[in-house]
């Protein structure tokens, strides 16, 4: 007797050959992974109450290459319009899944019903790159609802759900699993999912019981074995808290990508290389601080800070101005009211310590009337002088306009080093140099991964 005795028959019945041409599926899957998803290595996990649209946009800005929505309940999604509107709207506001700023995106559902899962997948098929089945949620609520990791023993039901969704929806189906304690069961499980037709498998290297205080370290060894056993792309999850962890995990497991949840929440720039190593010019930073603190600097009592900033000679000195500003301004707002009004009049009413626009004063009214003189000779003289003055003024204005124009950026700037214009093709909004740097890092990681994979081939 083992604790899985009641499942063995079900498992065996679920392990049949695929109901599709596997060779073709593998070929298509890899070209989708490469050409549509662009071989994402850095993946932001599905996170309830966290991997919402704004967070995904922010994470992508800092090098995340594939994001998941939070988990949605398929059964609620298909029957409840309010639930859809609140989570992943299917009408009206279609920002989520927008090809312009929310791709690549996987929509994750939990479900235990064949019809609910395939119907939900069909409903989002146009607004994502894949629909992911959550088989990893270990929480009590998932136990009560019998979904997530609490259905990881129900292989034949899982298989039918995936097969039906593939048949009904024209979108790729993926799954996110946890490991079993037993290695061979984990490998059979992963293989069964591949035969069911998933296009990508994410494996979290922890068991269902490893949660809360028992979370412990994730097992990368089993992830490596799953990667070796499968032919579809495999993503590793667990214990990735910094860029070095990500690189180590790819090296040690040979996976195609790594996914982080908590690491990303504490540092959405986790995948970003060290920012301070490529700071923009001091004058740029100073310029930003001057603008942000403009209204503060108009107050006499902050003159000292203004001078400090003007004289700052390095990054640390500018940092001290920012700290000083924080110290002196932090407690001014008794209401702790930090939302920014939408309309100009309200914005301008804000006190000086809040960020608000700068409105240029109007040029002073014409002074012609004041200069009227009774003496006609004087008038002539004055007219001449005035004309001369106006010519001079026009010339000066022209010169200034040119100068201002030359200072104004002609292109959108790189978000990494705001001194350079953005490259036209870089999806990370980087300039050519930064984009190239990022690419070379990716190639390095890719070649390390390839190397370990090859090295491993030699060993076996
Ligand atoms: C706030 C939070 C919400 C989560 N929500 C989901 C979810 O909706 N679906 C899911 O599959 N996993 C969810 N997870 C689990 C993560 O996706 C991930 O598998 C787990 O946290 C392990 O990765 P980590 O070590 O990088 O945190 C969540 C985790 C956190 C911290
Ligand atoms: Zn740049």
From TrEMBL:
Belongs to the Dus family. Dus1 subfamily. This is tRNA-dihydrouridine(16/17) synthase [NAD(P)(+)]. Gene3D superfamilies: Aldolase class I. It holds the Pfam family Dus. The keyword tRNA processing applies. Coiled coil: none annotated. Its cofactor is FMN. Its EC number is 1.3.1.88. GO terms for molecular function: flavin adenine dinucleotide binding; tRNA dihydrouridine synthase activity. Residues 362-394 are annotated as: Disordered. Keywords: Flavoprotein, FMN, NAD, NADP, Oxidoreductase, tRNA processing. Residues 44-311 form the DUS-like FMN-binding domain. The keyword NAD applies.
């Amino acid at each position: 007797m083992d604790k899985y005795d009641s499942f063995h028959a079900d498992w065996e019945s679920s392990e049949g050959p695929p109901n599709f041409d596997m060779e073709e599926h593998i070929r298509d899957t890899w070209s989708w992974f490469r050409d549509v998803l662009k071989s994402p290595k850095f993946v932001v996990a599905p996170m309830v109450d966290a991997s919402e649209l704004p967070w995904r946009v922010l994470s992508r800005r800092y090098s995340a290459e594939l994001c998941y929505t939070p988990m949605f309940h398929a059964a609620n999604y298909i029957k409840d319009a309010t639930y859809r509107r609140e989570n992943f709207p299917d009408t009206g506001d279609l920002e989520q899944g927008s090809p312009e700023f929310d791709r690549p995106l996987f929509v994750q559902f939990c479900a235990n019903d064949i019809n609910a899962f395939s119907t939900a997948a069909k409903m989002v098929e146009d607004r994502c790159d894949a629909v992911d089945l959550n088989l990893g949620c270990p929480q009590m609520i998932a136990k009560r609802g019998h979904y997530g990791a609490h259905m990881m023993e129900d292989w034949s039901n899982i298989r039918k759900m995936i097969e039906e969704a593939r048949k009904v929806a024209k979108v790729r189906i993926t799954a996110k699993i946890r490991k079993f304690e037993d290695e061979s069961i984990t490998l059979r499980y992963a293989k069964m999912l591949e035969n069911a037709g998933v296009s990508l498998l994410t494996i979290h290297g922890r068991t269902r019981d490893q949660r809360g205080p028992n979370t412990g370290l994730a097992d990368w060894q089993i992830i490596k074995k799953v990667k070796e056993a499968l032919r579809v792309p495999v993503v590793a999850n667990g214990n990735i808290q910094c860029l070095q962890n990500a690189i180590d995990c790819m090296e040690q497991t040979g996976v195609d990508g790594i996914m982080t949840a908590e690491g990303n929440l504490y540092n959405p720039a986790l995948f970003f290389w060290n920012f301070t190593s490529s700071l923009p010019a001091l004058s740029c930073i100073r310029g930003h601080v001057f603008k942000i603190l403009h209204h503060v600097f108009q107050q006499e009592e902050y003159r000292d800070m203004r001078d400090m900033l003007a004289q700052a000679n390095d990054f640390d000195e500018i940092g001290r101005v920012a700290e000083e500003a924080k110290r002196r301004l932090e407690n001014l707002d008794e209401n702790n009211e930090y939302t920014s009004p939408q309309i100009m009049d309200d914005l301008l009413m804000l006190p000086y310590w809040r960020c608000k626009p700068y409105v240029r004063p109007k040029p002073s009214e014409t002074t012609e009337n004041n200069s009227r003189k009774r003496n006609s000779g004087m008038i002539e003289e004055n007219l001449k002088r005035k004309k001369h003055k106006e010519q001079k003024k026009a010339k000066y204005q022209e010169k200034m306009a040119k100068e201002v124009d030359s200072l104004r950026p002609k292109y959108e700037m790189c978000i990494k080093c705001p001194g350079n214009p953005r490259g036209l093709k870089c999806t990370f909004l980087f300039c050519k140099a930064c984009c190239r740097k990022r690419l070379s890092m990716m190639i390095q990681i890719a070649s390390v991964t390839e190397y370990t994979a090859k090295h491993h081939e030699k060993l076996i």
